[in-house]
Each structure stands twice: as structure tokens, then as C-alpha cells.
Amino acid sequence: MKTPSNRERLYKLLPKDIIFCSGLLDSHGEDYAAMVADPRNVYKENARSIQRKMRIFKESPHYQTYLRAKEEGRPIEEVLADEGEM
């Protein structure tokens, strides 16, 4: 039986998920109850599901892109388009 390696996880997020997560973070910070009630939550995900998606987003390289976009005052969609992600 093989033991799992300590390889770093690489998450591939869809552009719509990156935009979803970044929009909710901008609007609500870490308030997952408010995120559940947000109109952008069209799939009616529960707080636990959104929390999991946010964790994956924050562990992905796209979170650094989000922080850079926020620092530059540019929309995340524009930065993703410049990087060829969209």
C-alpha cells in the first residue's frame, strides 16, 4: 500500500468561480451567512459549501491574482482577461 505524497495541491478553478468568490469576499468578507443570502448565489449553496469554495479559492494561485487586482484597483475580470484566464 502506497502512502500519499506530500505534494502541493493544485486547484483549477473556473473563471466564474473566481469571480463569484472574489465578489462575495469584497461584499461580505468572511460572513458566510450573508453570502448564502446574496443574490449572486444563484445555485443556493449553503454556508458550508461556500466556505469550502472559499478555502479552495484562497489556496489557489488565483487568490494572489485577486489580491493584486484589488491592490491595483482593477476588476478581477480585467486582470483574468489580461492573463488569458477568461
TrEMBL record:
Q: Which InterPro entries match?
A: Ribosome_biogenesis_Nop16
One Pfam short name: Nop16
Protein name per Swiss-Prot or TrEMBL: Nucleolar protein 16
Q: Please report the organism this UniProt entry assigns to the protein.
A: Heligmosomoides polygyrus (Parasitic roundworm)
